[in-house]
Amino acid sequence: MDEAILADSRDALILKEASLNPVYYIPRADVAMGELSMSDTSTHCPYKGDASYFSARNGDAKDVAWSYENPFDHMLIIQGYLAFYPDRVDAIETTARD
Q1: What backbone torsions phi and psi does residue 61 show, to the nearest 5 degrees?
Q2: How far is CA 96 from the centre of its chain?
Q3: Which of 3, 4, 23, 5 lies closest to 13, judged by CA?
Q4: More confident residue, 75 or 5
Q5: Region class of 82: left (phi > 0), else alpha (psi between -120 and 50), else beta
Q6: Could you tell me which residues come within 8 angstroms of residue 31 by beta carbon, excluding any fewer than 6 positions away?
Q7: Phi-psi region of 63 (alpha: psi -120 to 50; beta: other; left: phi over 0)
Q8: Angle at the Cα of 53 (from 52 to 57), degrees rounded to 5?
Q9: How many C-alpha atoms does 77 have within 13 Å on its Cβ side?
Q10: With bands split at pLDDT 50, 70 and 90, how would you rate the model's confidence at 31?
Q11: Domains plus CATH for the chain?
Q12: Strand, helix or coil at 29?
């Protein structure tokens, strides 16, 4: 299995929703987009909008990250950011800003 650093950021946002675990959203500029490919998966969140998903390009992991390409107006702060599933990548280490 190939290993790649998918993101390295000092500018992650933390999104806290109700009783859910906090989610780190990383600016697309800090993500190795060449290591990811958009998958066919999509979901809808009534609070944020429609999410697009990304898989590892090497095929080792499906839908490791998601992004709201066109979030609802009140969530525009996460536009241009990706979030990673902590259980689908080896590690997430961030210095985030609230």
Answers
A1: -145, 130
A2: 14
A3: 23
A4: 75
A5: beta
A6: 6, 7, 9, 65, 82
A7: left
A8: 140
A9: 11
A10: very high
A11: 12-97 (2.170.150.40)
A12: helix
Contact yes or no for 64/84 (Cβ under 8 A): yes
Instruction: Give 52-88 pLDDT, tens digit per residue.
Output: 999 988 777 899 999 999 999 999 999 999 999 877 7
Q: Is the pLDDT of residue 1 over 50?
A: no
pTM (predicted TM-score): 0.84
- Among 44, 40, 28, which residue's Cα sits nearest to residue 83? 28
Predicted confidence at residue 94, as pLDDT, reads 55
Two tokens at 28? 């697309």
